Amino acid sequence: MFDGMQRRVVSLWFPRLASNRVLRRYPLDGPFALTIKQNNANRLYCLNAEATQQGLHQGMPYSDARAFCPDLQTAPADLPQDQRFLQILRRWAMRYCPWVGLEGQDGLVLDVSGSAHIFGGEEGMLCDMRARLMRAGLSVQIGLADTRGAAWALAHHGEGVASPGEMLPALQTLPVVALRLDEKTSVALAWLGLRKIGDLAAAPRAPLTRRFGPDVLMRLDQALGQQPEEIMPLADPPHYGVRMTLPDPIGLVSDVMAGTERLLIQLCAKLKAQEMGARVLAVTLRRVDQDQQEVELRLARPLRDPHRILPLFERGLAGVDAGFGIDQLRLEATQVEALPVRQISHTLERGKDQLDDLISRLGTRIGLENIQRFLPADSHIPERSFIIAPAAYCEPQSGWASPNPRPLCLFPPEPIAASGPHPPERFRWRRMFLTTGRATGPERIAPEWWLEDDSWRSGLRDYWRVDTIQGRRLWLFYTPQNPGWFVQGEFP
Amino acid sequence: MHEVCGPGAYTYAFVLAARLGGVCMWVRGRRDLTLINPNGFTDFIAPSELIFCNTKDEIQSLAVTEEALRAGAVSLVVVSLNKPLGLTEGRRLQLAARDGKSTGLAIIPEGMGSNAAETRWRCAPVFGHGDSTLQKWELIKNKSGTLGAWHVRWDATSRRLIMVSPAGK
Questions:
Q1: What ipTM is given for this predicted complex?
Q2: Residue of B43, B44, B127 to mutate when probing chain A, most A C-beta within 10 A
Q3: N or C: which end of chain B has fewer CB within 10 A?
Q4: What φ, ψ does residue A227 adopt, rounded to 5°?
Q5: Span A286-301, mean pLDDT?
């Protein structure tokens, strides 16, 4: 990377990352451990220093640990949260150099070539790191060397600094496990008498490769700097938030709207650069008395056009209590979706935009999930032959086909007094006396046995379409397994 | 803004939606148990042309109706009401419909019309031999014309309303 400049790599290892993270939030005295469920057994996952002093170790069954140390306090481990914490540490480490990568589950690797002098040389930088991490309540082991492998070895097996160009003298006395070899290989090497890295470096190479494959010597070469190894810096995830702090508090709706407009223009430029569209936006208004109010806007479609979004905020912002005034506005797109740039089409889609805006606006009033549309479903049960889905989160689908005519409206089955498998001559429904004029049917529909449904407990249904002399055209069904007649729908 | 009552009100609403074309919005209370069945109205409009809103109460229904009418993005807004519409609400909906150039239709219980409505219809299905969609539509209030009654039937293939002369007694 930097030709002609000595590369220097710092490896940070956080041996108690998970428990440190939990204890930072809820400080405790005495032995503490995080447990994790593995193969149906609760095991210790990460311990603090007191717990290690009591003789507990990682991977120990939890029940054994309780027997050894009755006053052990535990909490369940949360691995995703640990990873998030490590990402935060990675961002923090960018203060030392721009080139920071992750090292496994609990470490960071920093390429500090050419940036150490800013912190007063390597010694000064390591002291600074150690002091800051200690203040944050994290235990850390630091290794500094020319290569990533050597820095890792020093961090994990006795901390230390290898002076430039002298990897072997620094690593010589470390065990071979420090070369990031797996357990099996290092045990096999120990049987051969190769316990230290120095022994391995002095051993003839060809027989080693023949016996263990190229991996062992590759790791050795990487540690000693004879083979290159890259550090992969990770990009920060894009952040869609902008804010504005005002010298004097404001209180009028028009002023807040004007501020929001300025922020929206900034945010939409950011969204446009990334080809994204906002789906959920939140404006946080901070008042002079430090009280905060949030106005959320959920959109029916990803958008990044400030002139279309702004009017949708009007209703939410008008309901804010400004108190003694608002002095900070913060706008964040909390949920974004990809919105690629599109060719302007020759077909006019203005109506669709208008409809989407209408859905967004109604969504601020009654909630987006209450605006729904029908989607076809594959079922012959009349109530299940369609799905009701929020209109903002699905596209209209075609594919409506029913072989038999279906009623215009459905209601929960209403029993009527009748008997026998044929439709009754006259019956009473909703306080009306009806006479059958014509009956068409039956159409037998069997319940879907693979789905539990209480209303279909009564078994098969024979559906009849009954045209009454009085005019109403009803959808009746008879349940032959539990004799009874019901009205379920009405035809146009 | 128009009103319709009687047992054939749903059919009337769908015939109107089919005639106007475009997207139709159906506003209904959350406690309304009667559900329109998309497989049943494919003869009138495509189910993808219909969007419905579930509202908490009547006031919300009216607010949603007004907003949808004013936006002009939908051609027909159908709202089912349980209480008669007051003069103020009726007038507001009327103005909103005029601004948005869209049509509003309130499905009301029998005898609960409001004075603000442009027209009011009473629709009831009629038993007919060999014909399944025969209906009697009565115009019982009209602000700008005369009243009348018609026997109509819906032709599913041509999607057209067909006027039928009433059967002789």
A1: 0.90
A2: B127
A3: C
A4: -125, 140
A5: 89
